[in-house]
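Dig into my protein:

:::
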Amino acid sequence: MADTTYDVTYIGAGPGGYVSAIRAAQLGLKVAIIEKRPTLGGTCLNVGCIPSKALLHSSHLYEEAKEGMAAHGVIASNVTLDLKSMMAHKDSVVDDTIKGVDYLMKKNKIERLIGTGSISAPGLVAVTDDNGKSNTITTKNIVIATGSEVAPLPGVEIDEKLIVSSTGALTLKKVPKKMIVIGAGVIGLELGSVWRRLGAEVEVIEFLDVCLFGSDAEVSKIAQRSLKKQGLKFKMKSKVVGATTNKSSVVLKVEPRDGGDVEEIKADCVLVAIGRRPYTKGLGLEQIGVEMDRGFIKTTDGFKTNISGIYAIGDVIGGMMLAHKAEDEGVVLAEMLAGQSGHINYDAVPGIVYTWPEVATVGKTEEQLKEAGVAYNVGKFNFTANARARAISATDGFVKILADTGTDEVLGVHIVGASAGELIQECIVAMEFGGSAEDIARTCHGHPGLSEVVKEAALDVDNRALHS
């Protein structure tokens, strides 16, 4: 290994790293990838996106069997939860996906190195295994793709038993009687939804006055209203200032954000989900002089750091902390390293929340357009007016399309509703091509289908929706 020089070496085998490695290998580069976990796929595959979506679907099926199917004439009696089997399904989904990534490494002849990677100097990466044995490889280019980790909350120590991160919330052995979720962001609402469906009383404590901060204000409002209807409780404008644990419960100290008396709230389980921070520990960045900004690695065009031959992608460089954003950055970088050109349009990167109903957003919010002084038209259509939505009992939510007043170019799309994450994709394609609301409106959509809600919203931009 010491005699081998790689064209590019990736530190971190999450979605950004392993996808970029595959693309680089496809383009004829000699590639190595370093990962300290025994399995590839990073947080997303192992303890994030994939297992959480498996549990979200399984818990939705359980709740539908208990409560939702009766309205369709399907009576399921004595429905019981087999949590062990549900967790086994989740684990099998993760294991099968990991095997798929392993196969892709072999197929593309990517050298996989297990251990912790650190940069000794430009062109030199040390790989240290769990026993402390280190080996140094030489490489023309280094790509840092180490992702992010759970952001800690002062005064609340995560033990992954009673006070858990998203990782611990995916492996609970029993359904808590009461779960407190600290943080009303994507992770908190998704995992809170899982355990609420399975029988826990779930209360969400949020420092801000809105959930899903950064979303279009109307989206935040409607999403929170839907989740309240399902039984989630919200305690907004509140901050957790301390926690004490005993053998079986946690007591949180909570005070109003804007001042007031501290109260104590007891729960069987507390999920800390206040966000994530870049993971750069042990990379040796300070020693070689890589410039940082508030913990993130600073990059210029082409994902270059200030050190020649060292690049960074994904969560460690900031922006949207999303797996698909990291993947696209990785593909663009690989193509540039192979002498091609590449570009990523961050205004066309969607954000999706897999609650019920789903939430999907892309591009600008109304608030951002107002702040920027951009004149825009709004088209909106509710799922309640869609025949397919009625047929499947999924009438919560709406589609909102924001288009430039002068050109009709689609500037932003915001969806709350069933299959929102899939429905938004046609809008993303339209935006990538500089398409207009009229383009979407003039495109034939199959009937009866949920996608007709998108078409009607596009028609409504010009005040000519047909079914409202």
Notes: The mean pLDDT is 97. The radius of gyration is 24 Å.
